[in-house]
Write a structure and sequence with these properties.
Layout: H1 20-30, H2 36-50, E1 52-53, H3 67-73, E2 75-76, H4 78-91, E3 96-105, H5 110-116, E4 120-131, E5 134-138, H6 144-150, E6 176-185, H7 190-200, E7 205-208, E8 211-214, H8 220-228
Helix pairs in contact: 1-4, 2-4, 3-4
Length: 229
């Protein structure tokens, strides 16, 4: 691997695969596999299903977007889950970067739409992995259990083809559309993410010293109860 890819293999405060817990988790998931594509598939499935998707836990503290924090919490939203996948990929030698886009979700629960006051999700995060000479998109956000509750198939990743959010649900209804592509980044563009969230959802934030703090307004458990009702 030449210097062009050094930035996509580096430890950062977000892609903190120097953390012992992240390393131990990656080693346990890979379980001796040496083929990069198979390693990537194993890591993707683990992050997708072991880390519960929760859109209500966004914080403006930088550490909350790190791989180690995501793993420790055991639940998170798309960006930290993408970072965790990317960090473990770097640990096993697969270059990774994070991609960001604005999307609209036509299958959001009424409670989540009310919380955001929008069905547009800014700063949706996914991972890009460099496998067999090309960059491949992987989106480990929605865990299989949640997908079952929502009536959609869990999003699969084969290490060869781009894997982004389901376009249609099992019932044929459109699930999610990409509205704006913000590009890919070797490290998490923290200020860009926080500023974009603050602009899109100003009602969720209040001034708290030198930074903005997200207001609590709902919970995943309430959302799941609504979906199952």
């Amino acid at each position: 691997m030449n210097n062009e890819f050094d930035q996509y293999l580096a430890v950062t405060k977000f892609f903190d695969f120097d953390d012992p817990a992240v390393q131990a988790y990656a080693e346990r998931v890979v379980d001796g596999e040496t083929d990069p594509k198979q390693q990537a598939i194993k890591l993707y499935n683990a992050v997708r299903d072991d880390i519960r998707y929760n859109p209500y836990v966004f914080k403006t503290e930088a550490r909350s977007l790190s791989a180690s924090y995501c793993l420790e919490a055991g639940e998170s939203y798309c960006i930290p889950k993408a970072v965790l996948l990317g960090a473990m990929a770097r640990f096993v030698g697969i270059p990774s970067r994070i991609g960001l886009a604005d999307v609209t979700n036509h299958m959001s629960s009424p409670q989540l739409i009310e919380y955001l006051k929008s069905d547009i999700f800014v700063m949706h995060g996914f991972t890009e992995l460099y496998i067999e000479g090309k960059w491949v998109k992987a989106t480990p956000a929605f865990n299989a259990k949640l997908c079952t509750l929502m009536g959609v198939h869990p999003l699969e990743f084969d290490g060869e083809n781009d894997s982004i959010f389901h376009e249609f649900g099992e019932d044929g209804e459109r699930h999610m559309e990409y509205l704006a592509d913000h590009g890919t980044f070797a490290d998490v563009p923290f200020d860009f993410i926080v500023d974009s969230v603050n602009k899109a959802y100003p009602h969720l934030t209040v001034e708290a010293g030198s930074y903005k703090k997200v207001l609590a307004g709902s919970s995943l458990d309430e959302d799941m109860a609504e979906i199952q009702a």
